[in-house]
Amino acid sequence: MMDRLILFTTKFVNRETISYLIFGVLTTLVDALVFFISNKVFCVEYILATVLAWILAVLFAYFTNKIWVFNSKNIKLELVIKEAFAFFIARLLSLVFTIVWMFLCVEILKLDEFIAKLLANVFVVIMNYFFSKLFIFKSR
């Protein structure tokens, strides 16, 4: 049992996963803050507020993931464009998931918009880690 715990810890608890979680939390805060300000302060409709929050959060996430999480050293323009394109496509899938989730939670289940958004972010952070790790910033 102790061997399994040590194996799990050494395999999944490392600089990359910890920094991903830290920047994932910060990205979620950017997303939630932009959504809250747009939706609750400026009364922007929740779908549009979700899209605005997504755009700013993805920009923040791309740079933090590239530089600090996955230490991507790609500086050739062609590789950066390919990497950024893949990152934004993966995040676009996350946006579609979030919009569908928000619609189901708000319109069908009648949950508060902000609570639904926070719940969506839990799933999105996990999905995005695997997209980034396996497809976007993989070691070449």
UniProtKB/TrEMBL annotation:
GO cellular component: plasma membrane
Domain GtrA/DPMS transmembrane: 20-137
Keywords assigned: Membrane, Transmembrane, Transmembrane helix
Membrane-spanning segments: 20-38, 44-63, 84-109, 115-136
Keyword S-adenosyl-L-methionine in record: no
Topology of the protein relative to the lipid bilayer: Multi-pass membrane protein
A Pfam family per the record: GtrA_DPMS_TM
Taxonomic superkingdom: Bacteria
Coiled-coil stretches: none
Main localization (coarse): membrane
Cell compartments where the protein resides: Membrane
Gene Ontology process terms (BP): polysaccharide biosynthetic process
UniProt record similarity statement: Belongs to the GtrA family.
Entry protein name: Membrane protein, GtrA family
